[in-house]
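== Folding the chain ==

***
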Amino acid sequence: MKTAIVTDSTAYIPKEIREKWNIHMIPLNVIFGNEVYQEEIDITWPQFYEEVRTKELPTTSQPPIGQFVELFENLSKDYDAVISIHLSSGISGTFQGAVSAGTMVDGIKVYAFDSEISCMVQGFYALEAAEWASRGEGAEAIMARLEELKKSARAYFMVDDLSHLQRGGRLSGAAAFIGSLLQVKPLLHFENKVIVPFEKIRTRKKAMKRIADLLGEDVSGGEEYRAVIIHANREEEAEVWRQELSLLYPNVEFVIGYFGAVIGTHLGEGAMGMGWMKK
């Protein structure tokens, strides 16, 4: 049984790695006025952060169902099944789009997986699935593996400005922060598929230390983990942090990821986060 792996652009898996592992990507859209860009295809993350400095903040949209249908139909020529891995259904309809499209195609069984998260943590699921698929593992076994990984998956991130998330309706339970936005660096995380406040922290430095401490708690048993440091146009800061954390936690394999155009629209430039899961 041949299984294809699909994810969406918000996994932010670099193109060369997608190609190496034969991961198919469906793009979400970022919209500046009347101009629609498919992220990771028409606009890269550095281009996006350059654009938002001179233009009004864009809006975002999920892929049209027809795009899923077309991809799944093409995959049905060579594959028996497809596992379609998407950003949290609590912040986007993309996962539901994959589910709906799966009912519209013949000749291939579609398994949609709600990562309940986004960015390269979502990408970790896609990479694991692709590795298993390359060994000839069946779709049911791969889905079970993804559910197993979900038990240890975490992500925490901080933003410089909550207004983007509030405006886009992507932040739940924000009332706790109102009135003190200027004094805090809110630490956020995913809970029950939506983005909610985790803690109020006074400074960026303390927020990043708190995230590192949360990682330390999880990996203290010595098991092997993979982690991603995720930045919104703060590449050098992310690299310094990666080097520091690599020394602290030798049982963790660190990579650097980024908040691309769609997620960056909602978090704003300067956001920083980290996600991890057991290997």
Notes: The chain has a mean pLDDT of 93.
